[in-house]
Amino acid sequence: MPELYSNRIDTPKGVFLIIFHAKALSRVYFPGQEPACQYPARKLPWKSLEEDLNRYLCGEIVDWNSYPLDTSCYQPFTATLLAAIKQIPYGQVWTYRESAERSGSPKAWRAAGQALKANRHPIIVPCHRVVATGGKIGGFSGPSGWKQMLLELEAVHNRRW
């Protein structure tokens, strides 16, 4: 396992904590969330991440695909599902069922919901864009209220929850 570092990004919505190593992002923590252990502070190797996170939280469309993600902690199904989730366009949503289908496991929609709760890269892997079929917003890997706020920020007009 590579050595991990941390960096705090101050945004209009609070301070995010980014955990990373030299080659990839390991985890994103929302404001108020803290890891179980401390990591040494270090400058981010991706200069644009702070700017992109602030732009996104101010309502701008950001392409997160240039940021390398450490997916070594994920089971194969979760890694495949999260790769599919990265393809959901800004301002649109998929259901858990659609997410499972698009990741190649059409009957695994319940497992998809559980896997999305394990997303260590929220916002960058936009699990907030996955909603329940039955009209509910569904769960989220971040703190309470953030999923609704992020969907409203993206002005999701295709409301199905």
Give a written overview of the molecule.
- This protein has five helices and five strands.
- With 161 residues, it is of the alpha+beta class.
- The protein folds into two domains: 5-66; 76-153, Arc Repressor Mutant, subunit A.
- The chain has a three-stranded antiparallel β-sheet with strand order 1-2-3, with helices on one face.
- The chain is globular and about 45 Å long.
- The termini are far apart.
- The mean pLDDT is 93.
* Overall spatial form: globular
Largest beta sheet: what is the strand line-up?
A: 1-2-3
- Round the Cα radius of gyration to an integer and report it: 15 Å
Domain tally: 2
Please report the first level of CATH classification, the CATH class of the largest domain: Mainly Alpha
One letter per element, helices H and strands E, the order comes to EEEHHEHHEH
N/C terminus separation: 40 Å
Quick structural overview:
This protein is of the alpha+beta class.
SSE blueprint:
Elements: E1 5-11, E2 14-21, E3 24-29, H1 48-57, H2 76-85, E4 94-95, H3 96-102, H4 109-117, E5 130-131, H5 146-153
Parallel strand pairs: 4-5
Antiparallel strand pairs: 1-2, 2-3
Helix pairs in contact: 3-4
Structural descriptors:
161 residues; Arc Repressor Mutant, subunit A; 27% helix
